[in-house]
Inverse folding.
């Protein structure tokens, strides 16, 4: 299964329409710290290494040539220490956190998110409120799993039709990390724009 997700900005009334009739699943607090080297060798390839609530995860892009023209995000998510070490070519010497640090990886942003998760039909809906300390960033993510790569386009289409029926804007929105960088680390943000990882809109 491949998780497909699309981010949406929430204007007045959007959240209420989006969750109307949906099943509330849970609310959780997420603490994220994202890691990279000083040369942005991971994030400039749209690859995201994070420690989420104390557990390391690696997200690697599957959207290939579509790049910025993609209609939704498609990532391979690796959450085993062995898998992360293999992808990063990182030998096991000490703990994963120490080995990352000794190989030049360090946190470049950390924030807390309050996430409300809902189920509506075949879709999972996450309402995220990210707390950056002196500001916040709210967005919705609509998720649906594709059984294989051949079904990705159809799955994206289902998400977009669902969002359109609710009346959500199809405008692009920055994710939490790129929005954080735009506000607090403009050099890193501009490096990602130059690398084609995100648009400066």
């Amino acid at each position: 299964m491949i998780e497909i997700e699309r981010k949406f900005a929430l204007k007045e009334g959007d959240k209420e329409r989006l969750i109307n009739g949906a099943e509330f699943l849970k609310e959780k607090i997420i603490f994220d710290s994202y890691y990279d080297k000083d040369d942005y060798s991971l994030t400039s390839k749209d690859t995201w290494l994070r420690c989420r609530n104390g557990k390391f995860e690696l997200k690697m892009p599957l959207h290939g040539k579509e790049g910025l023209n993609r209609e939704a995000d498609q990532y391979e998510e690796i959450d085993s220490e062995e898998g992360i070490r293999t992808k990063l070519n990182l030998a096991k010497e000490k703990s994963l956190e120490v080995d990352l640090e000794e190989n030049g990886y360090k946190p470049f942003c950390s924030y807390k998110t309050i996430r409300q998760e809902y189920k509506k039909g075949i879709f999972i809906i996450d309402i995220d409120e990210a707390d950056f300390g002196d500001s916040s960033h709210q967005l919705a993510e609509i998720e649906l799993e594709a059984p294989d790569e051949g079904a990705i386009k159809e799955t994206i289409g289902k998400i977009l039709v669902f969002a359109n029926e609710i009346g959500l804007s199809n405008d692009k929105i920055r994710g939490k990390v790129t929005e954080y960088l735009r506000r607090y680390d403009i050099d890193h943000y501009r490096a990602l724009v130059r690398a084609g990882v995100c648009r400066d809109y």
User: Anything to note?
Assistant: The mean pLDDT is 93. Strands lie at 2-8, 23-36, 48-52, 55-61, 73-78, 106-120, 123-131, 136-146. The chain is about 25% helix and 35% strand.
